[in-house]
Design goal:
This protein is of the alpha/beta class. The chain contains 15 helices and eleven strands. It has one domain: Amidase signature (AS) enzymes (Alpha-Beta Complex), CATH 3.90.1300. It starts with 8 loop residues before the first helix and ends with a helix. 56% of the residues are buried.
């Protein structure tokens, strides 16, 4: 039998319901693994001192007759999601000592369900990155090979679950920041439909791109957390009801944009992808080749729109209102010193790029054209998903890269997002599911397959993903 900290959420929930284990035992098993592995992995920035007390409260609720699938389940929370009374730093010196004054909506919903929050996890600063090497508090390492990255920006959450330091986790996904680390660490990662999950209480990176979602060991676990956190929220006007988009029939046709697979995809990753497609065909799905001409421009469009939104969202950290504040000779010095020392190199790079594309004389040439291209890409994906039910690609072009391998070449780092950014630009839901391993330097490293569905059709993702999982 698996150790308690290695159980899936659904397995643990059954044992809790049957009285075979307690929440306290689950939490203690995770804490023991954290003590053993976190010093080297650096997945957690903080382990909450009251985790056992939370578990005991969950056990009392269950003893009083409550029966919820997430009651007593230990979860890890990305450090850009607010939990009232707890530090929320977004892995940045700018907010190193900031304490949240309210709960994010996703946290409020999970508290109602009785989930136990183990701690806050490391990430790329303000979610700027694809490797969790841009944290102000040091990089996180991949549990499968500690010389490699866990992906980003939700790498701490991914590493925590993959290493058995939590049963599940919340991350945020702006351009692949849940799905890419899921692929690198052998997990299931879901980016929901834009608006399906409230962004209230999430530190904004790209407001038109961000979505919170789960990182779990199984598809059923991801579905469980998604159903707990989804729904319309009065605090976020972009949220939608579950019936906002029309229901679709059971998916049976999967489109494969093979022209995109010619872009630097490792041969063994492509081999695993073809094997996963064969699994789907054996399960009754049909696969057809499709063309998505504008998807080839998605990365360029994303890296104009995202920095523009970053520049706007991070303008609030000015050394005056809240966060890090260094005093200079005048107001401008206050601003320059606070932002210069508070933001790391990648955050500064994106702020500068975003400010440039929004500036007078360049707005129309860059940001304006990117928004037009985004609208055309969304229409193209919409038309394609009228012909097929799902779109399949590998999640990433390769397994996890070495620590430091791409830090000196930002463009090479950005290319890690080549298959994932489209879903954020178009608002479609997408999921990464493990599709086996490939060998690098004697280590078996996970890789994932990504499925993208029509707006509001997470059910199609879960159905197909479960077939791959089998």
């Amino acid at each position: 039998m698996s150790k308690l900290n290695e159980l899936s959420i659904t397995e643990a929930a059954k044992k809790l319901a049957a009285g075979e284990v307690t929440s306290l035992q689950l939490v203690e098993a995770c804490l023991a693994e954290i003590e053993k592995r976190n010093p080297s992995l650096n997945a957690y920035l903080e382990v909450f001192s009251d985790a056992k007390e939370q578990a005991q409260e969950a056990d009392r609720r269950r003893a009083a007759g409550e029966s919820r699938p997430l009651l007593g389940i230990p979860l890890a929370i990305k450090d850009n999601i607010l939990i009232e009374g707890r530090t929320a730093s977004a892995a940045s010196k700018m907010l190193e000592h900031y304490v949240a004054t309210y709960d994010a909506t996703v946290i409020a919903k999970l508290k109602k369900e009785g989930a136990v929050f183990i701690g806050r996890t490391n990430m790329d600063e303000f979610a700027h990155g694809s490797s969790t090497e841009n944290s102000a508090f040091g990089p996180t390492k991949n549990p499968h090979d500690e010389s490699r990255v866990p992906g980003g920006s939700s790498g701490g959450s991914a590493a925590a679950v993959a290493a058995g330091m939590a049963l599940g986790a919340l991350g945020t996904d702006t351009g692949g920041s849940i799905r890419e680390p899921a692929s690198f660490t052998g997990l299931v990662g879901l980016k929901p439909t834009y608006g399906a999950v409230s962004r209230s209480g999430l530190m904004a990176m790209g407001s038109s791109l961000d979505q919170a979602g789960p990182l779990t060991r199984t598809v059923a676990d991801a579905e469980l957390i998604f159903n707990a956190i989804r729904g319309k929220d009065a605090l976020d006007s972009t949220t939608i009801d579950s019936d906002f988009y029309p229901k679709r029939s059971a998916p049976k046709k999967i489109g494969v944009p093979r022209h995109l697979l010619e872009r630097g995809l490792d041969a063994d990753v492509l081999e695993r992808f073809e094997q996963s497609l064969e699994t789907l065909r054996a399960s009754g799905y049909e696969t057809v080749d499709i063309e998505l001409p504008l998807a080839g421009l998605a990365l360029a469009v994303y890296y104009v729109i995202m920095p523009a939104e970053v520049s706007t969202n991070l303008a609030r950290f000015d050394g005056v209102r809240y966060g890090l504040s260094h005093k200079g000779e005048n107001l401008f010095d206050d601003y320059a010193k606070s932002r210069g020392s508070g933001f790391g190199p990648e955050a500064r790079r994106r702020i500068m790029l975003g400010t440039y594309v929004l500036s007078s004389g360049y707005y129309d040439a860059y940001y304006g054209k990117a928004t037009v291209a985004r609208a055309q890409l969304r229409a193209e994906v919409l038309r394609t998903l009228e012909q097929v039910d799902l779109i399949a690609t590998p999640t990433t072009t390769s397994p996890a890269t070495k620590l430091g391998e791409k830090t000196d070449d930002p463009l090479a780092m950005y290319l890690l997002d080549i298959f994932t950014v489209t879903a954020n630009l178009t608002g479609n839901p997408a999921i990464s599911v493990p599709m086996g391993t490939v060998e690098r330097e004697g280590k078996a490293l996970p890789v994932g397959i990504q499925l993208t569905a029509a707006h509001g059709d997470e059910a199609a993702l879960f159905a197909a993903a479960k077939q791959i999982e089998k």
